[in-house]
Amino acid sequence: MNMLMLSSSRDGDSGYLESAREMIFEQLNGINEVLFIPYAGVTVSKEDYTEMVSNALPELNVKGIHQYPDATDAVLQASAILVGGGNTFQLLSELYEQNLIGHIREKVLSGTPYIGWSAGSNICGNSIRTTNDMPIVQPHSFGALNLVPFQLNPHYSDYQPPGFNGETRAQRISEFCALNPDMPVIGIREGTALLRQDNKLTLVGELDGIVFEGKEQKTIVSGQDLSDYLLG
User: Fold this and answer.
1) What's the number of CA atoms in the CB half-sphere (13 Å) around residue 60?
2) Per the residue annotation, which of 133, 157, 222, 227 is the catalytic one?
3) FRET partner for 207 with CA separation of 20 to 30 A, picked from 117, 140, 158, 166?
4) 143 C-beta neighbours (distance < 10 Å), count
């Protein structure tokens, strides 16, 4: 397996996918024909979203899945799969409607490189129950690709604005863990990613991440081997 699960498409004030370019090209390892899945976009058309990714990665031949006559064939023929961010519920709903969950999973399990960011990373986990997004649509199921046997929380932040009295991200994730004590949640900050290469899982990027498991929270550092979390 060859997966790059990016927290975000931007880091700070950087341009679109600018901070992720090096990681993306390392992951592709010379592949330049990529299939892009823009289903998470809600306020941007599939055509415009695909063009935005193509402009950010001009070295690649980026083709949107909507540009193929058959979405299943597009996945089955893909040399690499990119899945963009947006609304995770919308993304998962469309994948179920197009009957693509199993096909994407099989392709990635067979070694096809997968690169996702934000919502595109959220769907790699056991389910999307720890996304930050509003449930603007109701997918067939919250069950996701389950390419890693834990939950993800991209865009993780423990910043609490002055005067803010709502629940923090950590509190929300702790609620999930209270009801699902055996399911870890890995929070990845913007500018970082989880990299899976076969049975090895590593945090990449400059910032630390955090793992929630039951009542415990612990910091994980860049370069740390997290392969034990692949054991389920």
Assistant:
1) 29
2) 133
3) 166
4) 16
The overall average pLDDT reported for the chain is 96
Decide if 157 is catalytic: no
The SS3 assignment for 87 reads: coil
Contacts of 131 (CB under 8 A, 6+ apart): 88, 89, 119, 122, 153
68/226 Cα distance (integer angstroms): 37
Residue 129's region, left for phi above 0, alpha for psi from -120 to 50, else beta, is alpha
List Cα–Cα distances, 58 to 61, 68, 103, 118, 187, in angstroms: 7, 20, 27, 21, 30
Q: What is the rounded CA–CA span in Å between residue 149 and residue 228?
A: 11
Query: C-alpha dihedral over 63, 64, 67, 72, to 10 degrees?
Result: 110
Task: Dump pLDDT digits (tens) for 123-166.
Answer: 999 999 999 999 999 999 999 999 999 999 999 998 877 888 78
Give the separation between CA 74 and CA 185, rounded to whole angstroms. 31
Instruction: Clarify whether 133 is annotated catalytic.
Output: yes
Helix (H) or strand (E) holding 221: none
Is the confidence at residue 190, as pLDDT, over 90?
Answer: yes
For 43, the token pair is: 């306020």
- Cα–Cα distance measured from residue 193 to residue 7, given in angstroms and rounded to the nearest whole number: 6
Instruction: Tell me the backbone φ, ψ of residue 187, rounded to 5 degrees.
Output: -95, 125
Residue with tokens 């996702």: 116
- Catalytic residue at 155? yes
Catalytic residue among 7, 9, 118, 121: 118
